[in-house]
Amino acid sequence: MKAIVAFTARSLRTSHPRPFGASIVHTKSGKPLLRALNRVAQDFDPSSHAEVRAIRMATRRLKTISLAGYTLYSTCEPCPMCMSAALWAGLDRVVFGATIEDANRHCNQIQIHALEVVARSDMKCVVNGPILRGECYALFTHPSMLRAFRRWSSRKRT
What we know:
Layout: H1 2-10, E1 21-26, E2 32-37, H2 40-43, H3 50-62, E3 70-76, H4 80-89, E4 93-98, H5 100-104, H6 114-119, E5 126-128, H7 133-141, H8 143-154
Parallel strand pairs: 3-4, 4-5
Antiparallel strand pairs: 1-2, 1-3
């Protein structure tokens, strides 16, 4: 989790700061496979969340739709879309830092917890969190991220 927080924090020094980062790691060995950041604005794609991007990149890299044997780490509790993608991918486990409520203080969220998505599914996935919540929430409250949130909220929706 510390590695994905550090990776995500580097984005705070760029023109596109993001508090949402995700990594996929081999569950047994702990060997990292890849990591990703949210790219919704850059990709003009509302589904380009860090977790979904990491899952897409991992399945392409491994040339399989199953990520059984892997764990997803995320700086924030996965939204229902991201948690559903984790279930469909067959991830063993999801570990998150900040909560949906933490994120909702700064940007819109669908407030359905990851554990509720798992509970309503016939697919299994262990969900652990919040882990390092303070460090992850600090990504949301960094001055450059607070400026970015103000820009996000002033964007016109068409």
